[in-house]
Write a structure and sequence with these properties.
The chain has one domain: 3-Layer(aba) Sandwich (L-fuculose-1-phosphate Aldolase), CATH 3.40.225. A hairpin with a 6-residue loop joins strand 1 and strand 2. It is built from 8 helices and 7 strands, in the order H-E-E-E-H-E-H-E-H-H-E-E-H-H-H. The protein is of the alpha+beta class and about 230 residues long. The longest helix has 24 residues. The chain has a 7-stranded mixed β-sheet, sandwiched between helices. The structure holds manganese (II) ion. Manganese (II) ion binds next to loops.
Length: about 230
Amino acid sequence: MEDQLIEELVLANRILFAQGVVDAFGHVSARSSADPSRFLLTWAIAPALATAADVLSFDLDGNTPDAAGRELYSERFIHAAVYRSRPDVMGVVHSHSPSIIPFTVTEAALRPIWHMSAFLESSVSVFDTQDTAGDTDLLIKTPALGAALASSLGESTVALMRGHGSVVVGRSVREAVSRAIYTEANAKLQAESERMGKVKFLTPGEAKLMNDYSRPDVRRQWDLWVRELA
Ligand code: MN
C-alpha cells in the first residue's frame, strides 16, 4: 500500500518539474497511508530526479531515521507543520513558481480568475517571515517558522510566502499537484487580465459549486500528466 503511494509521490515530483512548477528547488510530500503521523518526502534532490529509493519517511517534527548521511531539505518543516495542523491534508507542494511571486510582494491579492482555480476562493494569505523572525534567509528552517506558516495557511488551500513562493495543499498528493499547477496558471492569467482592464473574478457562489464538483483523484489531468512523462 505504501509502495503505491511512494510511486505516486515520485510521479508527483516529475510532473511538477514537467509542468514548470518546480525547478532544481521546491518539493512535494504525501501523508503516509500506513501512519497518519508520518509523511513521505525525498532527500534534498532536484524533484525531476526522484526515484522510489530517494523517498524517506518523516515524523511531524521533521525528523527521519532514513537519511543515511543524505542531505535533507532545510524547509521540510513546512510539510511537518502543515500535516500537524491540518488532519484533512494528504499532500503538500512547496514551490517558487515564478508567476505567483508578484502576488507575494505587492498589495495585489491572488483570486480565482477561472473555474480551474476555484479553490483560491478560500482567502489566500501572504506569510512574511519578517513578521515572525525579522531578517532571515526567508527559508522555513525551524519548527517555529513552520508553525507560523501553517497558522497563516489556516483552513485555506494556498498560502503565499513573501519574496519566496507558496505552499499548496490537497486532499491527496495528486490534488496538491494539480492545485499547484493551476495556482501558477491563475497567477499568470490574473496578471495578464489586470493589464487589460477591470477583472471579474469567480463569485463565492460559483467557486463553491466548482469546489463541490471537483474530486481529489483529479483522474483526467493526472493520467495525461503521467503519459506526458514517458
Ligand atoms: Mn523554498
